[in-house]
Amino acid sequence: MHFSRQSGGRPSLAAKVIETLTEQIENGDYAVGDKLPTEPVLVERFGVSRTVIREAIAALRAEGLVESKQGIGVFALGPRQSSAPLALFTEATSRISDIIEEMEIRIGVEVEAAGLAALRSSPAQEADLEAQIQIFARLVEEGKSTDQADFEFHLAVAAATNNTRFKSFLDHVGRRIIPRVKFRNLMGGVDPLPNRDDILLAEHVEVAEAIWARDPERARAAMRKHLQGGIKRYRALTRPGLAKKADPVDEPSNS
User: Fold this and answer.
1) Do residues 130 and 110 lie in contact, with contact meaning Cβ atoms separated by under 8 Å?
2) The domain 10-76: what is its CATH number?
3) Which of 97, 183, 184, 223 could form a disulfide linkage to 114, CB 3.0–4.6 angstroms apart?
4) What is the pLDDT of residue 245?
5) Nearest by Cα to 174 from 192, 150, 195, 198
């Protein structure tokens, strides 16, 4: 489950509800077809607001654990069948080598996605890529986090393949597939590496321009460069002294 656990905010309250109901569904406390308690009952049981309960149910529905029938209620669909094979992306990361291995898998998926997007993207999808780049650029200018914008750009490329399985893959693993998100978790919430947002933005533009030019090989090369740069950066951290020697201007990206 890819729900934020930041202390003190609503997401952490929803996460508690999600975890409890997920465990009950996957343990069989709610069998397939069983109706979950009504919203007022869940509000009382968990001591949270209706909004929190609705957020939790929406997340469970997105994970394929429940379905809502209008005017009737929410029903269990049973344990997830497809999450285990992709747990390698969502489980807690304890080593930098885990991040590197995951990025190698991303190369296998996203390089081809970029090539297909160059061949198949619609005008609306090309406009979405441009919009995602503009959002990223605005966040960089404002000094705000670009984590979600980074993920949304990769989602837009996957959607532009017009093969829903590419986007489903990224949707399933969530933004934790972005290595800097996992690296901060690994480092206790602090990222000691220099900010690379300007480089990320430039590399996103390279990928998008190749897609707009309908050049699949150029698009694949741009995405490969983008992801391999991140691999080189994190691999340098496993070798004493290399990270300190890296030129902050020439150092590759972390997306």
Assistant:
1) no
2) 1.10.10.10
3) 223
4) 42
5) 150
Centre a 10 Å sphere on the Cβ of residue 2 and count the other Cβ atoms it contains. Answer: 15
Domain 85-245 has CATH 1.20.120.530: yes
DSSP code per residue over 153-176? HHHHHHHTTT-HHHHHHHHHHGGG
Each as own residue / partner, the long-range contacts of residues 140-149 (CB below 8 Å, 24 or more positions apart, any chain) are 140/197, 140/198, 140/201, 146/197, 146/200, 147/175, 147/178, 147/180, 147/181, 148/175
Domain boundaries, the chain: 10-76, 85-245
Environment class of 253 (CB within 10 Å of its CB; exposed 0-12, middle 13-18, buried 19+): buried
CA 47 to chain centre: 30
For tokens 């009382």, the residue is 44
Q: What is the largest CA-CA distance in the chain?
A: 63
Please name the residues in contact with 87: beta carbons below 8 A apart, sequence gap of 6 or more.
none
Element (H, E) at 217: helix 216-236
Q: For 6-64, what is each residue's pLDDT tens digit?
A: 444 444 688 889 999 998 988 888 888 899 999 999 999 999 999 999 999 998 988 88
Tens-digit pLDDT profile for residues 205-237:
999 999 999 999 999 999 999 999 878 877 777
